[in-house]
């Protein structure tokens, strides 16, 4: 009777052997590998987060630089227009002076 019971227990245990082997493989190999990969990915995420923050800071600087450049561009356009207007007025003044010169000389 005892031998039969031991044989049944042995049979039941042998049915669980593949499950036990799979669990040992998971425990010894796959879970540690997944933990290493998880740790590596977490580090990569942290690094990417820091890199993202740096890029966002650079973007803010570039936006500020763009705003300054746009402001300066308007000033440069205004300067160029005023320079052209000044040249035109200078030409007009010289023309007027040339036209008046004979009249002024004739009166004296």
Topology, please?
Blueprint: H1 2-107
* Average pLDDT rating: 91
How many strand units?
0
The percentage of residues in β strands lies in: under 5%
Q: How would a textbook summarize the main sheet?
A: none
Q: What's the overall geometry?
A: rod-shaped
Ranges with pLDDT <50 over ≥5 residues? none
Provide structural commentary.
- By secondary structure, this protein is mostly helical.
- Helix content is 98%, strand content 0%.
- The protein is built from one helix and no strands.
- The longest helix has 106 residues, at 2-107.
Looking at this protein, list some descriptive labels.
0% strand; 98% helix; mainly alpha; 108 residues; 1 helix
In a few lines, what is going on in this structure?
This protein has 108 residues and is mainly α. Helices cover 98% and strands 0% of the residues. It contains 1 helix and no strands.
